[in-house]
Every structure is written in C-alpha cells, then in structure tokens.
Amino acid sequence: MPVEIDIAHVAKLARLDLSDDEMARLRAQLGQILEHAARVGEVAAADVPPTASPIPRANVYRDDVPEPSLPVDEALRNAPERDGDRFRVPRIAETGA
Amino acid sequence: MSAELCDLTGAELSAKLAAGETSASEVLSSSRGRIDAVEDRVGAFLTRTDQLASERADELDAYLSTGAPQSPVAGIPVALKDVLTTNGVRTTCGSKILETYVPPYDATAWARLAGAGAVLVGKTNCDEFAMGSSNENSAFGPVRNPWDLDRVPGGSSGGSAAAVAAGEAVWALGTDTGGSVRQPASLCGVVGLKPTYGRISRYGLIAFASSLDTVGTFTRTVRDSASMLQVLAGHDPRDATSLDVPVPVYTEGLDDGVAGLRVGVITEAFGEGVAPAIGASVRAAIDRLEELGASVGEVELPHAAYALSAYYLIAPSECSSNLARYDGVRYGYRAPGEHADSIAMMFATRGQAFGPEVKRRIMLGTYALSAGYYEAYYGQAQKVRTLVIRDYEAAFERFDILVSPTSPTTAFRIGEKADDPMAMYLNDIFTIPANLAGVPAISIPSGLDDAGLPVGIQLTAPALDESTLFRAAHALESALSLELRPPLLQGTA
Amino acid sequence: MSGVSYEAVIGLECHVELSTATKMFCSCANVFGAPPNTQTCPVCLGHPGTLPVPNREAIARIIKIGLALDAEIAPHSVFHRKNYFYPDMPKNYQISQYDLPICVGGHLDVELADGSGTRVGITRVHMEEDTGKSTHGGGSGRIHDATYATLDFNRAGVPLVECVSEPDMRSPEEAAAYLRALRATLESLDVSDVKMEEGSLRCDANVSLRPSGTEPFGTKVEIKNMNSIRSLERALIYEIDRQTAALERGDAIVQETRHWDEDAGSTASMRSKEEAFDYRYFPEPDIPAMEPDAAWVDEIRASLPELPRARRDRYVETLGLKPEVARVLVGDRGSSALFDGAVALGADPVGAANWITQDVAALRNAGGGDGALRAEHVADVVALVATGAVSNAGAKQALEASFTSGEAVEAAVDRLGLRQVSDAGALGGLADEVLAENPDVVQKFRDGKDGVIGFLVGQLMQKAAGAANPKLAQELLRERLQG
Questions:
Q1: Which residues in B lie closer than 8 A to residue C146 (C-beta atoms)?
Q2: Please, which chains are in contact with B (at least 3 CB pairs closer than 8 A)?
Q3: Count of alpha carbons within 13 angstroms of residue C243, beta-carbon side
Q4: Strands C117-129, C159-165: parallel, antiparallel or unpaired by DSSP?
Q5: Local confidence band at A1 (pLDDT 50, 70, 90 cut-offs)
Q6: Average pLDDT of the residues in B89-96
Q7: Residue B186 lies in a domain
Q8: All CATH 1.10.10.410 domain ranges in chain C, comma separated
Q9: Could you confirm whether B81 is annotated as catalytic?
C-alpha cells in the first residue's frame, strides 16, 4: 500500500512552491517510494544500533587561531541584492521561520 | 594509426612530458581539438576554461623545462564535475539555482590537483545536485554517451565519464554517493573509482548526502586511477570527516598479480533484472581472475537488498537539509519580482529553480525527518546501514575482494526511464551498498555487449585497502586487454 | 475565581556568546562591533561545499561552564542539525545539540536580598552557533513596518552556549537573582564578556502559574526580548500579573511566545503560527562525536577559579564580612578584585569592603569604569583612616584623586593637605593653649555643661588649621578638664 502523505504540509516545511500538478505527481511518487523504503523496517530490529557515519571518528577539533576572513567585496560578490556592505532581502515577517 | 595525444593515458603522457617528447601546451591543444570536434554532440561540459587552461599549460611548460620534479598529473588535461568548487570559475551543480554562482574558494581535491600541475579544461555536466543515474536531470540539457549518442552516459557524473570516454579530457573527477562514478564509468567504458569514504576531502564537494558523498576518479586505466588517488588522498583539516591516516604509495605493488587472492562473487548480483549479456561478460572476467591464480568463491551480502531502501531514506534526508541553504539570500538564483516577505521569496526561488528530481528528494527527505516519522524512516535506515557494514565485515573475513556487475543494465535510451523514478533508482542497486558501508570500489570495463555497449565489472575491497583493489583491477584489466574506442571517435582526429 | 492564590513557576533559558578568538566552526575572528560582513568566510556564509570543524577552545569552555555548575560532562555527545529557514541563518539549519548535550544536570545556588537562598536546578548546557544579524529598513526601523531588511553575517557562527534551568524559580526576584548569579559565575570563568547590552548574554523566560500548593504545571508562556536583568524582572512581574488576571477571569492561558516591549512595559503576543516548529533534528553527519577524555576534563576542572559562591562564603566565614556586603562585592568582578588585592596587602577586610561598596562604587557609577584605582589605593586609605592620620572626609577626597589620576594616596593626602594631626604631644600643647584662653568655658564644663566641649574642640581645630584629629582633640581636652 503506498503511503499517504500531506504533500502541502511537507512542501511548506521545505519552503518549496509547488504547482497543483507537481503536488499531485509528488503525492503519488513519494507514496510509492516510501512504500518501498519502509521495507527497512523488516530488518531494522530494536537491538541493532544505528550508524550515522560509515567511518566513525571522534574528537575532531580545530585550534582557536584566527585566519583572515574574506574581503567584504568577496563576501558579497554573489549577493543577489546588495545594500552597501550588507545583503539585502525583502522584509522579514515577524513570525520568522 | 598513431594515437592522438588526447587519447593516451595519463601515464603515457607523463612519460612523454618527462622525456621532452611533448609539451603541456601540445597536449592541451589536442584535448581542445577533440572538444571542438565532438562537444556539440556529447554535451559533456557546462563551462570550458580555455583561457585558464592555456595559461596553466604555459606555466607548466616553463616549470617542466627546468627539470624540476614532476607529479604524475602535471601538464595533463583534467575535467571536474560541476559540483566541485573552483575559485573564480562558475560552479552550477547542473542547477538553475546556481547558474551564475562563482565560488570564492577551491575544493581541496581540485586544489591538490592544481597544486600538482593539472590543467583544467572545464566543468562537466551532471545530474542536478548529483541526483540521478542518467544525467537527464541536468537543468542544462542531457549528456550523450559517446558509444551511442541516443543513449545516456549514466549519472550523476555523466559529463565527466563521457568526457574521458570521448577523449575530451585525459581524466576527470566525479562524485559518488550511490554509484555516480562507477555506474557512468561502466556505461561509458572507462575506469571509475570510488575510494574509501573520508579518503579524499569533501571540502568543496557541494553536498548532496554528507555521509555518503565521495570524490571519485574517471580514468582510462587502473594505473591512472592509482596515480590520481595518490595526489588526492590525505587528511584535510577543513573536513572533520576526512581520515587522518597515512597514504600508501598506490602504484607500488600494482603489478604484483592476484595469485592467492580470495575473490568473492556476490551471488545476488546475478539474478533477475540483470541483462544476460552483462552476467556473461562479468562471469567471463571472473574466470580470467581465476586463471591468473585467484581463488574464487561465492558470497552473500544478505542485507544488500535493503540497502536501496535505506539509501532512499538516508540520502534524501541529508539532502533536504544540505539544500536548505539555496534560498536566494546570499548567492545564486533569486526569484524575480516583488515578494510579500523574505520567506515568500524563498518559496518562490526554490520552487522555480530546483528541478523535479531534486524537489522529489527534498520532499522525501523532509518527510522522512519530520515529526513523528524519524524513527520509522531515517532511524530504521541507519540500522540497515549497520547491517550492511556487518555483511561486508563478514564477507571480508573470507575474501579479499568482492565482485559483481557494476550496473544491471548497459546504457539505456535517453528518455527511456525518465518518467519512472523507481525504475531509475534501480540502476544503483549494485553500487549503493559500498556507499552505505564507506568501502572502496572500482568499476573497470569487462567488455561490450551485442549492441556494442560497454559492460562494467565492479570490484570492492575493505575500507582503506585501495592497494589491493588496484592490484586486482590492474591484473584483470591487463588480462582482458580491451581495446575500447567509441564509434563517435572512428575517423576523428 | 477569587480566593485562589497562584504560584509562579519560572524557568530561564540563557544564551552565552563565548569570547573565543575564533567562531565555532570556522577560523573567522570572533570580535564584537566590526564593520558589516568583514568577519565572514565561505563556511560561516553557508557557501555550497563548505564544512564545519568545531573549535576546541569553545568545547573546553562549555565543559568549564558545566563543571562550574556541577553538571555531568557527557562521555559521548553529538551535534545535531536544527532545521528551519530564516534569512539570518546561512545554512537554514543551526548546528546545535539535541538529545546528547555536552553537559547534563547541575545547579546554581542563588542568594536573595534578604539573605535567604535557593538552589536552582540546571537541566542542561549545550553548544550551538549564533546567527547573523538583520536590520529592518524602510519604515521606523522596527520589524512591523519594514519594507526590506539587510543582513550582516559577522555574528553568524559565533560559539553560543545554551543553559537551560529547571523551572525552579518562584518569583521575579528569584529569577533576577539567578541571572545575576549565573552572570557572575560565567564572568569569573573568563569564558564570555557576558554583557547583556551587547548581546553576549541573552535570556528568555518561561512562565506559568498554578494554584498554590498544587503540583501540575500550568500552561507556560515564553517571554523574549529582555535586554537587562532589570528588564527581566519587570517583564516577569507584568506577565505574572497578566496571567493571574486572565485566570481570575476564567480565561485559559494560551501557550505562545510573547515579546517584551521595554517602552510600553508589557508583553505582546507574537502573531502565532498555525503550526509549531518542526525542527527535523538529525545527527550532524559532518562532525564526529565528542568524547572528552577524563584527563582533559580533569585539566579543565583544575583550572576552575574560585567561584562566586565559594568566594562569598570565604568573605563571610573567613574574613568576617556581613552577607549582604559579601554579596555586593561578589556580584561585581572589579570590586571583588580590588577587595582581594587590598586584603592581600594587609588591609582590614571590613574596612576595605565598606570603602569599596560605598565610595568606590559611587565613583564608578558616576564616571563609569574603574578609573585608575588599584588595590594599593584602597589598602592605603583603610590604613590611614585606621591610624587616624586622615579623617573620613579627607580619605574620601584622596580616594577620588587616586581614582582620577592613579596618584598614590599618601601623595594625594600631602598635596591636598589632608593630613590630620594625631600626635598627642603636638595637640596636647594646643589643648593647653585653648583651655588657658577660655577659662569661662572651662568653668561651664566643670559646672556640668558637657556640651561646651564642642566649642573647645572647634577652637583646637582652628588652632590646628583644621588638621587635627577631632576625636583625639576631644580626648585630650577631656583629659585635662578632668584632671
């Protein structure tokens, strides 16, 4: 059974504007893919620990020594919109994220 | 007929350069000529760096003429998949959202090659953000397989594979997250290496799936692959996941042969869904290994069947987070016109500039991580990962090398699988387990099928044992002694 | 619903910007107040392909903070990605910690103005990174009427420690005392500038009410935007009143985030979203786990300074200060340092404490900063007053001079002619003169009018041109009058 997904909600979380067409197609495709993906449940027993990284290391740090930052113009070189030495964006609504 | 410089191997060219028989400028000229001749049909490049390459070649020639020590990559044309950052040179990831993005820094992998004298001819086309197995997901058009221009080169590093196969570059870098170097190598008849995860720095590898992404190489021979890895491998303090372990001399022992090598054939990889011609070609190659003195047995990776499912939860989950930064604020595409507010601008930017496959995976990943679903999906998938790692550990207790076909199919037609994501995902079925476990694997050509399309055999070794991988692959390559020249190049200069 | 009394339940979430040399995950310099976007790099700008590498010093400092708060240092902890979109977030996820923070548990002992104390539990202390700063443009400069915004990413990636308290506080006063104590502790560790006015210490509060004597927690409301300890206290007072009034009306409390408006003196609801944030936490794949070994933790533990609580106890129990005086001294690092220095030079602790908490404090409040004052100045003042060489008033003047110029106290005393004669011999002669010149007053004294001694002291002071120790003067006169 393909999985039922609230596509509109997921698109909102992902900040993706989707057309009705896209939503319909994604609803179907994602449901199918997840049905297959959910097979992991068949073997993922409770006593199997998860592995986050294939070659685990621990305690990798960096010394607290400053290095030169980018010159301001480099930092802003790719800015879609610039306001002096700052990045400019449309107003930020109060509710934020 | 004497071969064109651009069709020689890196080793051959390096020798010629050292002997003064040719110059970096000459070699570059040859590659450039090939690009001019075939690029309009292959479409491997998104950005050509002709000016930079000329300057570099001139610099190299001046340097080499002093008799100073020469790296195996010095003076030799290389192409980079367009997900590797190049300072001052546009890097697009095959996406509209980065169509005009110019990175302010070099990827470490590129910096090492550049530092050793490599000559960059261009940035290659790829599936958007490295998501795909056919290079049909690029926002800038597909890449065509030099073996048959109506067919895909494989993906996601299709441009790099095609460029090497067509002689447009002597070798190239790609990235392999679920098979994106090995599978196109197999479809294009070249050698594709995915080293151990963490062996090559990921700094500057534009992230798709952080725990799976690996820089890989496309070369004409296994020896060239070893030479490239020698320059690329090593700890990078800018990448906390890069391994801080010594780098062996990979070309040492390359010719030691495979007598006594224990080779395990992965039984599940010869079942249904694998074209008979592929099975036959790969089995014949395995027989050659046995003739060379390897002892061949059968092995199972019992959880490999679940690896595909796990991959399609882990990779999209990580990608949904890695691609969140593309929001029109600091770089890249911003949706034109007025927006109610910044968040609305982000919605529009991402909706307009991401392609369908990228959207699909972002949505999949967002869902798999969302409240209430983490345990069921992402959490479970990471457990399968543990099981796959254990499968390999058990297999490597009995065997030194594992073999299987690289891909269940040879190059399929452009458009053939484009509407069926699940069918497309199955292309990676033999390559994905090595990404989950982080072990090194290489694809080398095993022959052509009846349609004249390349077939690849995949060899896998334990983590950090690229030396054994190269030794076995080199022995097989020498024994097979294939002369592979795509029809596209018949009669070309 | 009259007749029900409510008890406030308060928890504080504090964010502390560490004053490390570099940011948390990249090597950009960590400085306050630099010109916009001059302290950025591809990593902290979230450029494609960049990777985070944790700052060892930041980890050492959070371990230090945890140890100072008596927290457990986790043998295995992990960074997580907290995913949400916001223009000041370069990656649209924050590298933070979720269910495996570096420090777990702990407590902070807090003293109130009346001398009573309370122990506030700490839930956890974890490591994360700060965001960029947005400036609202096109309107009044406030968010609600802005037409655009501009972004500065200098602050993006600065190491941020989040310290979450248990909901153990029961009044705005307790909350303010906790914040003060936390601030003093952090300051003593030298890990942060802890200046609320600069944003290196920030605080959000969670407040709920429950009928007194009951256990279950009420609905909690989060309060943000309090920029000082005073602000925190005012906001909590307001919010408790607001919730009390609502409950008395029979209204339910809405779980929400409210914004404290300093000018209006009230909290206002931030327009609530339809859904709570879904942060989609997952372990950060780019950073390996942290497993600080026992040797490193021990090294950090050994480097802990005397913490404010221990210092306060030493001041009271060993040096004999009154608790409220000790509290004031401990609450300010400069004062504490001056005090310790003066005592080390042999000054009487009670005297030194008084001078520092009163006159020195007044000078600092007036002029800002410590001026040029050093511990030896304080020690000298205390000594001179004790020997009677200078009167209190004279000492105050000298202290002011030293504060301004750093001049040695003795030098200031001499320059300003503040020395009072305390030599019984010299004064004795003058006393004899005064008595000889005022026989009628002497007679009045002998007849029982004790009050006239003041006049005689005044006469002696005049003869000494004001530089007589008035106490000694009176003593000498009385001696002679009685004799």
A1: none
A2: A, C
A3: 30
A4: antiparallel
A5: low
A6: 98
A7: yes
A8: 424-482
A9: yes
pTM (predicted TM-score) = 0.91
For residues C423 and B57, give the distance between their C-alpha atoms in angstroms, rounded to a whole number.
95
> Is this prediction's ipTM beyond 0.90?
yes
The count of CB pairs under 8 A between chains A and C is 136
CA distance to partner chain C, nearest, from residue B325 (Å): 4
Q: How many Cα atoms occupy the beta-carbon half-sphere of B54 within 13 Å?
A: 5
Asked whether residue B130 is assigned to any structural domain, the reply reads: yes
- What is the rounded average pLDDT of the residues B194-213? 98
Cβ-proximal residues to B394 (8 Å cutoff; 6+ apart), any chain:
none
- What are the start-end ranges of the E strands in B74-221? 77-81, 119-124, 171-175, 191-194, 215-219
pLDDT digits (tens, 9 = 90+) for B157-198: 999 999 999 999 999 999 999 999 999 999 999 999 999 999
Is some CB atom of chain A closer than 8 A to the CB atom of C31?
no
Average pLDDT over all residues of chain C: 91
Q: Chains near C, with 3+ CB pairs < 8 A?
A: A, B
Q: Which of C22, C30, C37 to mutate to test the interface with A (most CBs of A within 10 A)?
A: C37
Q: Domains (ranges, CATH) in chain A?
A: 1-42 (1.10.20)
CA pair distance C360, C213, nearest whole angstrom: 45
**Which residues in chain C touch residue A56, judged by CB atoms under 8 angstroms apart?**
288-289
Partner C contacted by A46 (CB < 8 A): no
Averaged confidence pLDDT in chain A: 90
CATH topology for the C424-482 domain: Arc Repressor Mutant, subunit A (1.10.10)
Residue B372 has pLDDT above 50, yes or no: yes
* Domain contains B58: yes
Per-residue pLDDT, B493: 46
**Helix, strand, coil distribution of chain C in percent, nearest 5:** 40, 20, 40
Q: Cβ of B39: how many Cβ atoms within 10 Å?
A: 18
Each residue's pLDDT tens digit, B105-133: 999 999 999 999 999 999 999 999 999 99
**Crossing angle (nearest 10°) for helices B24-42 and B50-64:** 160
Residue C275 has pLDDT above 60, yes or no: no
Whether B52 maps to a domain, the answer reads: yes
What residue numbers bound the domain in which B85 lies?
5-261+441-489
Owner of token pair 């209430």: B372
Q: In DSSP terms, which residues pair with C204 in a beta bridge?
A: C13
Q: Once rounded to an integer, what is the mean pLDDT over residues C106-111?
A: 94
Q: Is the dihedral of CA C23, C26, C31, C35 positive or negative?
A: negative
The answer to whether B75 and B56 are in contact (CB under 8 A) is: no
pLDDT score for C478: 87
Q: Is the pLDDT of residue C424 over 80?
A: no
Q: Which of A61, A62, A85 sits opposite C37 (nearest CB)?
A: A85
Q: Are strands B454-460 and C80-83 parallel, antiparallel or unpaired?
A: unpaired
Q: How far apart are CA B182 and CA B458, in angstroms?
A: 8
Q: How many domains does chain B fold into?
A: 1
CATH (domain of B241): 3.90.1300.10
- A44-56 confidence digits (pLDDT tens): 888 999 988 887 7
Given a contact cutoff of 8 angstroms between Cβ atoms, the answer to whether B319 and B208 are in contact is: yes
Question: With an 8 Å Cβ cutoff, are B103 and C47 in contact?
Answer: yes
